[in-house]
Amino acid sequence: MTNEDHLKNLYEPNVNHINIYFNGYYKKLYLSSLNGDGAGAYIVIWIIDEFENVERITTIPF
Q1: Parallel, antiparallel, or unpaired for β 18-23 and 53-59?
Q2: Domain that holds residue 40
Q3: The pTM is what?
Q4: Which of 14, 26, 40, 48 is most buried by a 10 A CB count?
């Protein structure tokens, strides 16, 4: 994935529902965001491994 691909198809972002976690043992940074307009909510999670490799997971929370 390119840097632009990590942000594609993300709609109705909500900056009030962003969480950041760091796992020092595995050196991974987790960013999660609950987005949507209420009728069509989704969660996106970015996992950054050693601050280089990025994985994006998008799912419906219900």
Answers
A1: unpaired
A2: 5-59
A3: 0.81
A4: 48
